[in-house]
Amino acid sequence: MMRRWGMSLTAAAAMIGLAACTPNGEDAPVNETDGLVVEEDLSGAALNAAIQAGEEHLEWLEEVEGEDALGFARLQNERALAQLQSDPRYQTLHDRALEVLESTDRIPYVGVRGGELWNFWRDAQNRHGLWRKTTVESYASGTPQWDVVLDVDALAAAEEKNWVWGGSSCLGPDYRLCMLTLSDGGSDASVRREFDVEARAFVEDGFVIPQTKGSSAWIDENTLLIATALDPDETTTSGYPFAVKRWTRGTPIEEAETVFSGQASDVGVWPARFEQADGTAYFVAIQRESFFEGVYWLLPDNAQSEPIALPLPRKSTPQALFDGQMIFTTEEDWAPVEGGPTYPAGAALSLDMAALAETGELPEVKTVFVPDSRQSVGSVAATANHLLMVINDNVVSQLEAFTYHDGGWTSQPVEAPQNASISIITADDQSDLAYVNVSGFLTPETLYRVTGELTLEPAMSAPAWFDAEGMIVEQRQARSADGTMIPYFIVRSAGTDGPQPTLLYAYGGFQVSMNPSYSGVMGRSWLENGGTYVLANIRGGGEFGPAWHQAGLRTNRQRIFDDLIAVAEDLIRTGETTAPQLGVMGGSNGGLLTGVMYVQRPDLWGAVISQVPLLDMMRFHLLLAGASWQDEYGFPDENEDERAFLRSISPVHNVETDGDYPPIFILTSTKDDRVHPGHARKLAFLLDALGHEMLYYENIEGGHSAAANLAEAAKRVSLEYTFLMQTLMDRTAGETQER
């Protein structure tokens, strides 16, 4: 198939001012034909037929910085922004969202290092952010005095880079030397540079790892473990490194000594340091042979010894070191000893790490916690005297404190707010200091300090950003196609009369749980304007442990889609909304979910939003990190059944030329080096060619979040809520019937 532009892209850009301004729709006239002319054989119907037949893959849209691809994106941006930003509600939504996102009243969440509390902060004056610290006493005052260690805005200006903070890894016990992660524009590939906290400067001739997907871990002040994707010969098909190397200060990175090597077919290999309160540290290479399976290799202290494969389940996750015990969770049923007990998937277990390191043999396995069918283990962290664990029970949280003595584990509950989501923010293994966050749909976040007596003391609270008076939260269930009951939360005004505009959000993949949480932006933009919000806990997530996730893997994925369909149908059946008033939103894997909803059940929706999505399931494994997700979705080049199933659900391959589809808003980011922007571009191009109602916005900056800073994030969400108001509220005003 051939394509051509009606004029050169350079001429088109010059005509509408794209070369000189960001695509904000203010300085350039809208080109009604979008400047795009197609050959006769690339008419919408012919293009769709060619895609259906596997003869056209629109690979030109996979050229991330390709002139044609970016030209298409910019012209679509102009159209979307012209429609949405001209709406008088847009600016109000934007300003109110930005107020929330940049507010100085937000909780400054911290991590504890060496008895000090560290925070990274962005606001209106600090778009790139401040890396800063304070004392425990100052933080407890509620108005901490911050000591700024690095001003990333000043750094970005001095180096003329759009630096986006990616975190820090510091060497204890003094935490003076840190490896800082910075990306230019928000991509996953990042630069890592050594920083001296005391000197407040990057170390001259210090460790610097050029931009790459990888990681590092400290051995000592002169030695790092590194995994980089700098050398194509040491890079997996997913784009990650498969070799871990020991790098000594003062030597070129090219001379770093390989201490462990995996395979190009692995997802990736990463180094890790596990350390407990007495300073004992173990160094591990994490080899992920697939997204969910792998081996943990204990790295030796000297070059003469070989790495030891830890005898853990292939589907497991080390969580913490506490009192000599390595605590890990399992994602599969595990019988470590023939004839011995079988531990169920989702259990938290432990073993003696020193004994394992000495012998390489599996020591006695201890049970920490075994969830029931409606429970799952959440965050885990160790203080000096307790192992803290969040246990989710029917998608609400409890906090437990475990101790290890006399060869076994005991626990006691920590009294915490009920019917809320709890997450452990940070814990200090040198003391009993820990902080946990508590929130709900209508309850702003409150940060609590965990005391040595295992009580929660309020430390800080976020402001209430929207008026929740008269609003209620209910948890309901819908019956999926196979009879499984799917829980969902509905947040609405108690005084509603009749069906209401409703936004349904879900994710459904990678064992990621969707828990109740407070969103000032959503509350202001949607709930206060009369909308109802629904969060669906469909399969594919981790709300009820590994089995809930694994029920929807590969060719079983239709269960996940059926779950969301069941929730949507239940909302309509119970009169909460109608199909023209119901919108669905999701991002990344959730973008695939909403793309499937668009093509499988267009009759259910008044609007669809697909954010940074996967949409071409015939080529997902060939694009950027896509190969790493085949364990989740399937192996289209290796398994005919999986390929056929992926073809049957792939949104790009299942659009009907004359189908009756709801309006869709597709968003992505040029800088997203995780989910390729080509996915979103392809569906947008096809729908545009077919004349289906579609808006497309591509953020030229920003990574997988599609926003490199808070101002861009405010713009994105305001575009989305304006779209939802135009489609679910304006078009259905006064209507109650289904279309």
From TrEMBL:
Gene3D superfamilies recorded for this chain? Answer: alpha/beta hydrolase (3.40.50.1820), Prolyl oligopeptidase, N-terminal domain (2.130.10.120)
Work out whether the entry's keyword set contains Signal. Answer: yes
Q: Which InterPro entries match?
A: AB_hydrolase_fold, Pept_S9A_N, Peptidase_S9_cat, Peptidase_S9A, Prolyl_oligopep/macrocyclase
Q: Which residues form the signal peptide?
A: 1-19
Domain named Peptidase S9 prolyl oligopeptidase catalytic is located at: 525-728
Under Gene Ontology molecular function, one entry of this record is:
serine-type endopeptidase activity
Which GO biological process categories is it annotated with? proteolysis
Q: Which UniProt keywords apply?
A: Hydrolase, Protease, Serine protease, Signal
Q: Which GO cellular component term is one of those annotated?
A: cytosol
Record-annotated Peptidase S9A N-terminal domain positions: 58-450
PANTHER family per record:
PROLYL ENDOPEPTIDASE (PTHR42881)
Protein name according to UniProt: S9 family peptidase
